[in-house]
Each structure stands twice: as C-alpha cells, then as structure tokens.
Amino acid sequence: MNISGILGYLATFAIAAGAYAIASLGLNIQFGYTGLYNFGIAAFFATGAYVEGIITGGHSTEHLGGFGLPVVVGVLAAMVVSAVLAYLIGIPTLRLKGEFLGISSLGIAETIRLILTNEKWLAGGVWGLGDIPRPLGNLVAPKLYNWVYLGLIIVVVGIIYFLVQKITSSPWGRVLKAIREDEGVAAAMGKNVYKYKMQSLILGSVIMAVGGAFYAHYIGYLSPESFRPLMGTFIIWAMLMAGGKGNNKGAILGAFVVWGVWTFTEFLVNYLPSALASRAGYINAIFIAILFQVLIRFRPQGILSED
Amino acid sequence: MNFVVNGIILGSIIALGAIGLSLTTAILNFYNFAHGASLLLGAYMGYTVLTEFLPRLGLGGSTFPYLSFGFPMIIAIIGSMGLTAGIMIVIDRFVYKPLRDRGSGPLILGMSSLFMALMLRNLVRTIWGPSVHYYSNEIQMVRELPLGIRITPDQIFIIGLTIVLVVLTQLFLKRTKMGQAMRAASDNIDLAMITGIDTEKVVIWTWGIGTALAAVGGVLYGINVQLRPMMGWYFLLPLFAAVIIGGEGNFYGALAGAMTVGLAQEVGTPLLQRMFDSMNVQVSMTGYKPAIAFVLMVIVLLVRSYREE
C-alpha cells in the first residue's frame, strides 16, 4: 500500500472514530456525570442518522425524504426528535431504580429498529436509506473529500467537547455529580433530582443524535443492521469505559482507542483459518465483550481517571 | 381461540425463564441481562447432547408415539439443564462474584451481564454458525380438540412439562431446607446471613435452578419453533416484562406476568391488526410482536412511577 492509500485509510478511520467520540461524549453526560445507565444508545444514534438522512437526502419515490435541505437543518431536526424520544423514555423510568432506565432504553432501541425495519415508506425498511449527500462536497475533488469531512468532524467534536466541558464544570454539572454519588443527599439539598436527571438524559441523547447525523454522512447509506446493539450501543459503552468515565477527554480518547482495537482485530481475523474467517465478525464481538469485562474488573476508572 | 393456545405456549416458555429471572433478581439483587442467553445456551446445549453425544452412545432415532422426538430428547433436556447451569455458575464464580466481593453496585453487575450476553451470543454464532437449526425435520400433524383448539402433540408436551416443572420448583421452594433459605434470602439477604444461612450456597443454588429452568425454556422453544443465535436477545424484553409485571421475587407474579406477556403478544397482535385495518391504517402488526412486551412493561413502570410520588 502506498502512502496516500495509508493516509486515506487513516482519514476514514478518524472520521468514524470522531462520530463515535460525539456519541461517547453524550454517554459521558448521562453515565459519567449523572450515573444514568442508557443501554439504548443505538436508539438515539439511529434516530440522529435517519433524521439526517431523510432531511438532507435525495428524492426517492420509495420512502419519505428527498427534502435535500442543508446539513444544519438536518442536525437540528435530529436533535429535536431525539430530545422528544429521550423525554418519553425518561417519564416512566427516571423516578424509579436505575435498572429500569437500562431495561427501557434497551427496549426503545429495539422498538426503533423494528420500526426502521418494518416501515418501508419511512426509511426504506430493510433496503435502507441511500443517497445521503456529502456536506461541502463541491469544494474539492472527490478523491480529497475525506480530508474535508475529517476537518468538519474535528471542528464538530471540538465544539461539542468545549460545550460539554463548560456545562459539566458548571454548578449544574456539580448537581449531576451529587445525584450520581447520592440521590438522597441531592434531594435533601432541595434539588429536584427527577428534573436534573431528565435534563441530563435529554442533553446526552441529543449529543448522541448529532454523532449519528455525522455518522450518516460518513457511511452514506443507512440500514437497520448498522444499528444492532453491538455497533449502536455496546461499542460506545466500551469506548467511554476504556477512556475514562466522568472525563470528557477520556470519552474522546476511548472512542479512538476502542475503534483502533476494533479495526486492528478486524484486520487480524483475516489471518484466521478459512473455516473461521466467515465468522470473524463474531470473534471480534467476543473480543470487545471480554475487553469490557477486563476493564470494569481491573481498571474501572479507564485510561484517564475522572477529573 | 387458536391465538389463545399460542399465547399459552409462548407464556409457558417465558414462564420458565421468568421464574428464574425473578429469583436471581430478588436473591442476587441485580437484573441479569444475560438470562435470555441462558435460554439460548440451553437450546444449543440440548442440540449438542442430541446430535453429538447421544448418537456416539448409540442412542437416538427412537420417537415417542405422536411426538416428533423420543427418549433421547428427555436426556437432552436433562443434560442441557446441567450443562447450562454449570456454565452460568462458573461465570458467576469468575465474573460476577469478584465484582460482588468488591462491593460493586447492582447496576455494574447488570452491565457486566449485558456484555456477557453479547459474548455468549457471539460464541454461539462462532461455534454453531449464524443460521437456524432444528431438533427434528419432522412435520407435526395438528390435532383438532374440542372448542376448536388446534394444537400439535409437541405443544401439549410443552405445556405439560412447564406445569410439572413449575409445581416441582414451588415444592422445592416450600418444602426443602435450601428452598426455604432461598426464600429467606430473597426477602432480606442480610437477615438471612445473620440467621446462619450460608448465602454463598444460596447464590449457587439460585443460579443453578434459575438457569436450569431457563435452559428447558430454550429447548422447548427449539422444539416449537427453531434454534437461532438471536433467540436469547429476543426473549430478554418479554422476560423482564414478565418479572416487572409480576413483581420481583414473586413466584406466582412471575407466572402470571409470563402468561400476560405471552397472551398479549399472541392475542394482542391480531386484535391490534384488526383495529388498524378497520381504521384503514396500513401497518403490519406481526413485525411488532416483540414490542408488545415492551409497551406493557412501560405501562407498569408508569403506574409504579405515580405511586412513588
């Protein structure tokens, strides 16, 4: 492989890791700062991606969409829809034990995937949603486009990191931490625990949707299969736990590290005996699952500890 | 009417999983997200015993009158109970127990079990492949019973075995010393410890019984439908829904919850379909069967939320 090939590969790698880093920052608000267990990240990631695809995508007679609107409109719409979704899932669960948010968010992710699979008129069903444009695509030659998009992703990750850092170190962020450590104490201090949890859930989910929206432009074609629990939820949890929960730099670092491990093992399993090669993806998933168990057992604080 | 029969069959399979999940939730004090994987492993362990072990011992082939399987299946069910329970107990010793001993909260354990489910599912895919398997290729004749009930002999076996196991489990919990210790631990594990109950032994028994019941559920699903790697994941929401509807640690609650979920999925789907059809809404409800358990669960959680206020 020549140099430009390797560089191009690195750019693609960094774009995907960047989209995941955004989702990981969203999870960090929910879990890292507030202690909310969202096992349905895929719901918000998929919502963001599909809304973006429908709003900005090309016209199709097969499904809803073809609005061809600017990326900014798509991202805003993705944020609004995911906020409503987060609110709806927060109502029945946030007053109860933490497990119920976990179970219910898992349920909403599965339900969203069912809707995306069954409703062909909405987003193409199992055939998926294609023709998602490349933002700023007419600036450079298609060969160089990945670098433009990488630049865009870096700017977006930077802005979100800056905002999340600002918010989580504010008094509001300190209330979230108090809730995480001891809900009873936070309530005794006169804080409306339910309200704060709801705000944290919505804010985190909105950020996940932004990650999904930028993932949509990167991948160019969406199908419900891209948002299975492994790629939509588990891998993002592994990223945050690896990087360091409660640390926004860690959330981004973890996304790059775990995506690197994932890409590297995907490359390694190519050398498996041919009988196993067709099952390489499963072995890769087992590897991520074991990595996660090792992390929470031996390094629960992640690479970077909480700041 | 037939929807009701299907609902009872599905409810039976869910019940075998839900009783175990309810026990582990109450005694181990965490929501085991890998309990669906116990059904999955149970089904594939039964398959291994049936197609790998028994033919080598020269056993196999024979079938009971009317049923699609014979004595080997009974051995496969018992073997699957033992093997699956053994695997889950080993996992508890090496993965969950160290976390418990460190004082990790129930949610960390829940998350650990969620990733355990991911691992087991992909292990099954790696070993047995992603495609579906069947215990038997035989097509079963549907029998006509009074009241317009249409049922296969296999399905009567499923309901019968579930009833037998439920009764045996209840007898175990009520009549044996270990069963009483388990019920004490499910009420209050600290109090149980003070009264001299060996709680580690209780934990192992809880895993053993809960997993063995789920394993049977998995085999029965395999007999009724098929074996596939995603079956455990698809059972997870119905299992949680059944336990939450019935109340954690409540034996009869789990049973009633399981039947509610099973009936809601099988009877509710055609009812909703008819409703949407009459409203001229174009939607195919069969695709949403798995979501029905989830909607029921959310309703119960909403009611509980209001009580909390």
From TrEMBL, chain B:
Gene Ontology BP annotations: D-alanine transmembrane transport; L-alanine transport; L-isoleucine import across plasma membrane
A GO cellular component entry from the record: plasma membrane
Membrane-spanning intervals of the chain: 6-23, 30-49, 69-91, 103-124, 155-173, 202-223, 235-264, 285-306
GO MF: L-isoleucine transmembrane transporter activity; L-leucine transmembrane transporter activity; L-phenylalanine transmembrane transporter activity; L-valine transmembrane transporter activity
Subcellular localization(s) per the UniProt record: Cell membrane
Record keywords: Amino-acid transport, Cell inner membrane, Cell membrane, Membrane, Transmembrane, Transmembrane helix, Transport
Keyword rRNA processing among UniProt keywords: no
Membrane topology of the entry: Multi-pass membrane protein
Cell membrane as UniProt keyword: yes
Family (UniProt): Belongs to the binding-protein-dependent transport system permease family. LivHM subfamily.
Protein's name in the database: Inner-membrane translocator
Species lineage: unclassified sequences, environmental samples
